[in-house]
Design goal:
Blueprint lengths: L5 E2 L8 H5 L17 E5 L4 E5 L1 H11 L9 E4 L9 E4 L4 E6 L3 E6 L2 E2 L7 E10 L2 E2 L3 H6 L1 H4 L16 E7 L2 E8 L10 E3 L3 E2 L2 H10 L5 E4 L11
Parallel strand pairs: 1-10, 5-15, 8-13, 12-14
Antiparallel strand pairs: 2-3, 4-7, 5-6, 6-7, 9-11, 9-15, 11-12
């Protein structure tokens, strides 16, 4: 896919009409109970503490990266899902790329803000490098900066979709959700999007190289079992 591939929803609110058009597989949440706020381990007290947007910005400014919990790492991961599957734990703000021998690459992610969480089983429908971002009509109407890009913002470092986009399909149809990079790397670990899954540009580029069109993507409900698969 080329940089002209576009996405209309990830950086702006999803319209009610678009949400109602989704298959019944999707279960948008209406509160924070299904998509929890972030916690990070305080190295001084060894206690888990809340992690919000203000703390995230301050941490990123000081360290140039997200906290250790949200940095890419190889982890042990027991699941019956086959290698190549992507499993997203929105509650913990982790995305797992399943490897052989009960291992996975774990990435930190940003997820849907309050009222925009969802769960389901989908597939990778297509892939794009440096995708175009096209803001939805609602955003164009209220935001002069978005209106500038009503015809599509070319891919690049300032584009909200970042370096790569992985388009999620169900039953051969585009769900309007994507896994994509971001020009706000400090937002990893937070509930910030309109339902799309954000990753740093480095991480989404790494995942992009591992994933194939047709790969299974599982977005978990709270408390769903991983070992038996979903």
């Amino acid at each position: 896919m080329t940089s002209r591939e576009s996405s209309r929803f990830c950086a702006g609110p999803v319209s009610r009409r678009a949400m109602l058009a989704l298959p019944l597989l999707f279960v948008p949440t209406q509160g924070s109970s299904a998509v929890s706020e972030s916690l990070i381990l305080d190295p001084a007290t060894r206690k888990w503490v809340p992690y919000d947007s203000r703390q995230a910005i301050m941490y990123y400014r000081s360290h140039g990266r997200s906290p250790k919990e949200f940095q890419r790492q190889l982890v042990s991961f027991r699941t019956a899902e086959k290698p190549g599957t992507i499993i997203i734990d929105s509650n913990k703000h982790f995305l797992y790329s399943v490897l052989p021998d009960f291992q996975a690459v774990r990435y930190g992610i940003g997820v849907g803000r309050d009222g925009f969480g969802w769960a389901g089983i989908v597939k990778v429908g297509r892939l794009a490098e440096w995708p175009t971002w096209t803001p939805p009509a609602e955003m164009v109407a209220r935001d002069a900066r978005a209106a500038k890009w009503a015809g599509g913002m070319p891919g690049g470092p300032e584009n909200p979709l970042g370096a790569r986009a992985i388009y999620l399909y169900e039953g051969g149809r585009d769900t309007i959700y994507r896994i994509h990079g971001t020009n706000e790397p400090w937002s990893i670990g937070l509930n910030v999007s309109s339902g799309c899954i954000r990753m740093t540009n480095d991480d989404v580029t790494d995942l992009y190289a591992r994933v194939a069109v047709g790969a299974k993507v599982i977005v978990l409900n709270q408390g769903a079992a991983l070992f038996r698969g979903v």
